[in-house]
Write a structure and sequence with these properties.
With about 110 residues, the protein is mainly alpha-helical. The chain has two helices and four strands.
Length: about 110
């Protein structure tokens, strides 16, 4: 499939494109209104809302993993025969990654 390079911003567009994201019209060979894919204010609010949900989700998974690990380790350590315990590293890793992504998304 052929491509078109925008003479204004040098972005490579599909051959079927009639307008570049920067606003260059391939049909009129002139600059038009730039395309806005979404409202900046709404996208900023959506980004912060999603980041907040990620922070809460990450904290829950990390907390559940830690509580499960500490509780089963405490039970195994107090057992006279030693016992076994669960190292819930899956929820802890997922929780930590999600938590950090949420914090980065909120600050960025």
């Amino acid at each position: 499939m052929a491509t078109r390079r925008c003479p204004s911003c040098n972005l490579i567009n599909p051959g079927s494109a009639t307008v570049c994201d920067c606003g260059w019209s391939f049909v009129e060979q002139a600059m038009t209104e730039p395309r806005h894919l979404s409202n900046d204010r709404e996208s900023e609010e959506d980004r912060r809302s999603q980041a907040s949900r990620q922070i809460v989700t990450g904290a829950i998974f990390l907390g559940v993993g830690l509580i499960l690990t500490v509780a089963t380790f405490g039970a195994a350590a107090s057992s006279p025969s030693g016992g076994t315990y669960i190292l819930a590293y899956g929820p802890m890793i997922y929780g930590a990654i999600t938590l950090f992504r949420g914090v980065a998304g909120r600050n960025g």
